[in-house]
Amino acid sequence: MSGPRRRARAVRLGPRSLAALVLVSAVGVAAFGWPFLTPPDSRLSAHAQDAPWLFAGLLALLVAVVAATISESGLGPKAVAMLGVLAATGAALRPVGAGTAGIEPMFFLMVLSGRVLGPGFGFVLGAVTMFASALLTGGVGPWLPFQMLAMGWFAMGAGLLPGPDRLRGRPELLLLAVYGFLAAFAYGTAMNLAGWPFMNALASNVAFDPHAALPANLARFLAYCLATSLGWDLGRAAVTVVLTLVLGPPVLRALRRATRRAAFETPVTFEAPPG
Length: 275
Fold this sequence. Notes:
The chain is mainly alpha-helical. The protein contains 10 helices and no strands.
């Protein structure tokens, strides 16, 4: 008679990993949002063209530290193997649409993987996948650390959604589809924030102006998003929703089956032979 069926358990994180994740997220919020957080007369605003480069270097270091910390304390060999497979799959999916009109199928895989394997695994997977895809497509530049952090947040958010052990079927798919739709727009908005300060304020009336007040820059940023990325963000969100609803059931089953078989939290034990 077989025992009770095991559930697919998310990869758990220790206190040190959680602290590192909170730290890099706090620095990341500052790195993305500094144009709205600094007064016009601050030194940081005076170096508006240099600040994104400084934050890019800092984020690259912090993301690497967080990934190493989580890997050391929360990911065993089986989880690392699954991380490699999923990251390679996500990196291979990214060039399929080459970003054309927002056709980026890797996003739905990040949502489903984060859902099954938890927020910590999701963060590392999102960051590693974006790094690998950048090497594959040649998209390496000062924007890459921002992309890694934003994609880490994207996948981590799916792992924080309610009901990971109870919600199944159509309700879960609808929850993941709604999350994917909103988070795809959030990702695009975050990446707009990363690139927006690079624009020359004299060249466009939607560029960041380090001498302008907060309401004026908010209006400029909104106009910038509407003019440059709304179509891509909408396409990314729509593709994520469609793929989640169509491919979600088999992919979720496969991920949960692999997680149960891997039994990430089950220690290896050796028993003496009988008699």
